[in-house]
């Protein structure tokens, strides 16, 4: 079944944000932006049978979780780009952020849009797929083919829902290590990721230092701040307050908490931007009108933009997965695993690091990256650091940022020479 065929066309009237006058105009305006919504049954199908590679681990290869339970059987969905060289020394692992997936540099099978990091990964890009073998797995707990709450529980033949065990960043990394073992890759040339992907990069370098030659944690931190936990809790409560959430059993009830998930996305998306970027893009400009309507329609462009972000997000993401992945980020505290001393996580680490932050990122601000650099220096690791001046906020790592591209390309070129990889063809 094609990805296009799996998208169920729905009448816009089914999106009911508010009911009754004068709120019908709000619902109608939001509904106009909806082109396609992935039906719950199809979301389950993508969760179990993804449009990508998948490795299934049986009962004999359980994933030991920090929660103290074994997950078995389970599966990992992933994409690859480029060619693995003869001595398997050119592999680059890319780790996706909270709302990303394995489709880093290909057309997304659900949305039809380009890969989420195709500005960074691809032929001739900084992470050059003509030179490196790039692997991008969908994290455990997500909804695009790796085992998560939307996947089928083999014990019940129904979606896991909240019966799926709570996972951590370290659990994600353990699963990725098992994937690399399956692929026969003992050592990574490099590992790169931003935001939650950067957390995975940091966990990889602490848990498996001998397997990582170089690392690029971008716009990341070694633990979530109280403010970030608070933002995540608002998003979770928005989902759980949706009557169609059904205590996490919405698949069984044939419901879909897309309103709550859309609101969660709208709130989170604000944190990915900056005040300057919002002002530059929208200011206080009206949306398709010259004067206020004196209603609760989307009078301002920024309101319309956020509503679009919320509605488009529910096409491809699962509400329970949002709960699980935000909780995993909240639990992440690398220093806590090393007696509260962050430097101990990288004591005598053989990995080369390039830590990158952005001046306008208030979600993972530069002081968080500097703390990583200080800990790496204290642990004796090789590290370089760059703070990029931009007004694009946290999402700058996903956008067209020439300085970021130049830094990543230069760092990988130097690491490739140290690794003994063939020189890049000009």
What's this entry about, in short?
It is built from 11 helices and 14 strands. With 426 residues, the protein is an alpha/beta fold. The strands form 4 sheets. An 8-stranded mixed β-sheet has the order 1-4-8-5-11-12-13-14, with helices on both faces. It has a two-stranded antiparallel ribbon with strand order 2-3. Strands 6-7 form a two-stranded parallel ribbon.
Strand content: 5-15%
Rg from alpha-carbon coordinates:
21 Å
The global form is globular
Beta-strand segment tally: 14
From the N-terminal CA to the C-terminal CA, the straight-line distance is 41 Å
Instruction: Output the strand order for the largest sheet.
Output: 1-4-8-5-11-12-13-14
Order of helices and strands: HHEEEEEEEEEEHEHEHHHHHEHEH
Give the count of helical stretches: 11
State mean pLDDT (0 to 100 scale).
Answer: 90
* Sheet having the most strands: 8 strands, mixed
Structural class by secondary-structure content:
alpha/beta
Helix content: 25-40%
Low-confidence stretches: 1-41
Please describe what this structure looks like.
- The chain has 426 residues and is of the alpha/beta class.
- 33% of the residues lie in helices and 15% in strands.
- It is built from 11 helices and 14 strands.
- The strands form 4 sheets. The chain has an 8-stranded mixed beta sheet with strand order 1-4-8-5-11-12-13-14, with helices on both faces. A two-stranded antiparallel ribbon has the order 2-3. A two-stranded parallel sheet has the order 6-7.
- Helix 5 runs antiparallel to helix 6 (258-272), helix 5 (226-241) runs antiparallel to helix 9 (319-331) and helix 6 (258-272) packs across helix 8.
- It is globular.
- The two termini are 41 Å apart.
- Residues 1-41 have low confidence and may be disordered.
């Amino acid at each position: 079944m094609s990805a296009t065929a799996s998208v169920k066309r729905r009448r816009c009237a089914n999106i009911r944000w508010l009911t009754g006058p004068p709120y019908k105009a709000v619902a109608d305006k939001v509904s106009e932006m909806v082109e396609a919504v992935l039906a719950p049954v199809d979301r389950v199908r993508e969760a179990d049978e993804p449009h990508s590679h998948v490795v299934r681990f049986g009962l004999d290869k359980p994933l030991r979780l920090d929660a103290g339970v074994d997950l078995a059987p389970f599966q990992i969905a992933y994409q690859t780009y480029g060619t693995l060289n003869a001595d398997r020394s050119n592999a680059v692992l890319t780790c996706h952020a909270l709302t990303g997936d394995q489709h880093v540099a290909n057309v997304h099978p659900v949305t039809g849009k380009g890969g989420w990091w195709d500005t960074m990964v691809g032929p001739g890009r900084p992470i050059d797929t003509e030179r490196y073998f790039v692997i991008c797995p969908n994290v455990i707990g997500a909804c695009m083919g790796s085992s998560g709450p939307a996947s089928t529980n083999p014990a019940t033949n129904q979606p896991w829902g909240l019966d799926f065990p709570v996972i951590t960043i370290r659990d994600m990394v353990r699963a990725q290590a098992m994937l690399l073992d399956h692929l026969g890759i003992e050592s990574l040339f490099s590992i790169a990721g931003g935001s939650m992907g950067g957390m995975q990069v940091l966990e990889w370098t602490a848990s498996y230092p001998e397997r990582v030659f170089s690392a690029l944690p971008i716009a990341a931190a070694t633990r979530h701040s109280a403010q970030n936990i608070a933002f995540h809790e608002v998003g979770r409560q928005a989902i759980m307050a949706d009557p169609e959430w059904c205590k996490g059993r919405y698949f069984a009830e044939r419901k879909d908490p897309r309103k709550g998930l859309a609101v969660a996305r709208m709130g989170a998306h604000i944190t990915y931007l900056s005040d300057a970027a919002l002002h530059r893009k929208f200011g206080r400009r009206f949306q398709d009108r010259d004067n206020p309507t004196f209603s609760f329609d989307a009078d301002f462009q920024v309101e319309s933009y956020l509503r679009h972000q919320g509605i488009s997000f529910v096409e491809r993401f699962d509400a329970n997965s949002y709960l699980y992945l935000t909780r995993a980020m909240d639990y992440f505290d690398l220093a806590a695993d090393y007696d509260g001393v962050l430097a101990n996580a990288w004591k005598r680490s053989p990995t080369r690091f390039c830590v990158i932050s952005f001046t306008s990122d208030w979600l993972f601000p530069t002081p968080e990256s500097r703390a990583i650099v200080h800990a790496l220096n204290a642990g004796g690791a090789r590290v370089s650091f760059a703070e990029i001046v931009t007004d694009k906020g946290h999402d700058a790592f996903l956008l067209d940022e020439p300085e970021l591209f130049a830094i990543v390309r230069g760092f990988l070129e130097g690491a490739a020479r140290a690794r003994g990889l063939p020189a890049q063809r000009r």
